[in-house]
Design a protein that fits this description.
The chain is of the alpha/beta class. The chain has a single domain, classed as Nucleotidyltransferase, domain 5 (2-Layer Sandwich), CATH 3.30.420. The protein contains five helices and five strands. Strand 1 and strand 2 form a beta hairpin. It is globular. The relative contact order is 0.23.
Length: about 150
């Protein structure tokens, strides 16, 4: 079994909302996608959170799989995950340690994917992460019952 975890985050500055998303592909078939948001988050916080959530989903769902690749358009996130880069911003330390733990549990590889180049799973993550971030800005719109005028 081969698993690919695509991840992407969406954020600007730490005082504004951020969103994260991931897509899981098993043997070439999309089996799961998810997204979420934080009230205040930087882009790097959301990039790492997307990778964490995707890998932790795989740990919980496919714990025996040893052919896992984390794919991100954030080289920084991937290098933090492997330990190639050290964390300099203390507010990111918890996320990076959690990311490294999940990567080790799966013995996962990392792969950089250039963003906004038309790769369908990367684009889907981007859409989901942006929608999650924007839903924080417009809570009435995102929680509105479509049956109500």
């Amino acid at each position: 079994m081969t698993i690919k975890v695509y991840s992407d985050g969406s954020g600007t500055t730490g005082d504004l909302p951020g969103g994260w998303a991931f897509v899981v592909i098993v043997d070439g078939v999309k089996v799961h996608e998810a997204s979420g948001s934080e009230q205040k988050a930087t882009n790097n916080m959301m990039e790492t959170m997307s990778a964490i959530m995707g890998l932790e989903y795989v740990v919980a769902t496919y714990p025996q799989c040893q052919d896992v690749t984390l794919i991100s358009d954030s080289q920084l996130t991937l290098r933090w995950a492997t330990g190639e880069y050290q964390v300099k911003k203390m507010h990111l330390l918890t996320n990076v340690l959690r990311l490294r733990k999940a990567l080790r549990q799966l013995n996962a590889k990392t792969q950089w994917e250039r963003g906004h180049q038309g790769e369908p799973n990367n684009e889907r993550c981007d859409q989901l992460a942006k929608a999650a971030r924007e839903s924080v800005n417009n809570p009435q719109q995102s929680n509105k019952d479509p049956r109500c005028p």
